[in-house]
Amino acid sequence: MRVSLAATALCLVLVQLGCATSSGNPPYPTEWASIKSMPTPEGCPDLQGTYSNQGTASFPPEAGEPPSLADIFMAMARSKTATGPATWRRSWPTIPSESAKVSIRQTPDSMTITFIDSADRGTPLSFRRYRFTLSEDRVDDLFSCRTIYDAPTLRFFNEPVSHTRASILAIGGGGTNINLLKSVDGSLVVNWRSDDATVSRFVLGSDYHVEDLWYRYSRLAAERPVKE
User: Fold this and answer.
1) Dihedral, CA atoms, 139, 140, 141, 146, nearest 10 degrees?
2) In degrees to the nearest 10, what's the CA dihedral of 104, 108, 110, 115?
3) Could you say which DSSP state residue 70 is in?
4) Which of 39, 54, 90, 212 lies 20 to 30 A from 61 at CA?
């Protein structure tokens, strides 16, 4: 994890200096509704609402059918990375793969995502907004808010996948971030962002690659009480 972060940081510096190559697929699709939605006072996207568990679109098209929201969060629940629950000796509840819808509730410092099945039984996941502290005993349930692509974005600390590598010639690594955004038409947008960085040991140069996958989930108008 430290090698990956150091390599990525150095690559970004070298890109700015013109000593590195950078590549990746196009950003957010222009044919989708804009993600430049009104942020909350804390700078987060306003995600409050209920959404379909099944996605309606993917970008780029070669990404295939979008994963369900349940599948995305189960990938986080199973993460073995330094920011995943296993590293912090935590476990997440089992998310029902057959969830029909997903409810999101926000406060300035927390968020609860509830996966609701066809019988209106809910399985909640609780997350905390990151606040600097020296006594943090886990990070798998943390999120922060920032601006990406000129849009308010919520980023989870938990990386589903990360990797490092080292050889005589180079060092490198990368990981995957899950970001949530809100489009102006009310849809939930998931950005599955993977990066990979390689730094040469003997020649001043590097390679930095970013892959952005975008998934869209429709907002549902009607809500019924959730059974515990």
Assistant:
1) 70
2) 0
3) H
4) 39
30-45 in b/e form (b: 16+ CB < 10 A) is: eebeebbbebbeeebb
Residue the block writes with tokens 């905390």: 128
Query: What is the spatial distance between Cα 168 and Cα 48, in angstroms, rounded to a whole number?
Result: 49
Using DSSP bridges, classify how beta strands 20-24 and 206-217 pair: parallel, antiparallel or unpaired. parallel
In 192-224, which positions are buried (b, 16+ CB within 10 angstroms) versus exposed (e)?
A: bbbbbbbbbeeeeebbbbebbbbbbbbbbeeee
Helices (H), 24-132: 69-77
Determine the Cα–Cα distance for residues 196 and 211; give it in Å rounded to an integer.
Answer: 9
Two structure tokens written together for 127: 């997350």
d(CA 122, CA 129): 22
pLDDT, one tens digit per residue, over 88-147 is 999 999 999 889 999 999 999 999 999 999 999 999 999 999 988 888 899 999 999 999
Question: Given this model, what pLDDT does residue 20 score?
Answer: 40
Helix, strand, or coil (residue 73)? helix
Mean pLDDT over the full length of the chain: 83
Distant-in-sequence, close-in-space partners of 62: CB < 8 Å, separation ≥ 6: none
Q: What is the pLDDT of residues 162-175, one digit of tens each?
A: 655 555 555 656 78
For residue 211, what are the CA distances in angstroms to 37, 64, 94, 124, 151?
23, 15, 29, 30, 18
Q: Taking residues 71-100, report their average pLDDT.
A: 94
